[in-house]
Amino acid sequence: MLDVLADLVPQGGTGAPSVLDDQLGEWARDRRMVGGGPAVALRAVGVWTRLHGFVSLEIEGNFASMGLDPELLYDIEVTALLRADGAEAGPSR
């Protein structure tokens, strides 16, 4: 996932305060993220938090109680996260 994000995210800063860039850069270096500057690290943290929340909702049965197929929702979410522009993706099937 990190390799894909490194290809999608422009290198450089995040546009966030330099303190956050410093923290993200350190986090990326500690994990030996190749090409993992602050912008890639920020995107990785965003992907992780969104998917973590998604999986948490699935574990609790929230999607089932709504009558929704979590696999279809998950596919759409991952596709949207991997798009460079972050735009919502349509169903993959």
Description:
There is one protein chain. The chain is mainly α and about 90 residues long. Helix content is about 65%, strand content about 0%. It is elongated and about 45 Å long. The two termini are about 20 Å apart. Mean pLDDT is about 80; it is low at about 85-93.
Write a brief caption for the model.
The protein is mostly helical and 93 residues long. It has helices spanning 2-8, 18-30, 38-59, 62-65, 70-82.
Comma- or semicolon-separated keywords:
elongated; mainly alpha; 93 residues; disordered C terminus
Number of helices: 5
Oligomer: single chain
Q: Biggest sheet: strands, sense, closure?
A: none
Number of strands: 0
Distance between the termini: 22 Å
Unreliable spans are 85-93
Q: Name the beta content range.
A: under 5%
Q: How big is the Rg?
A: 15 Å
The global form is: elongated
The residue fraction in helices comes out at 55-70%
What is the chain-wise order of helices and strands?
Answer: HHHHH
Mean pLDDT: 79
What structural category characterises the helix and strand content?
mainly alpha
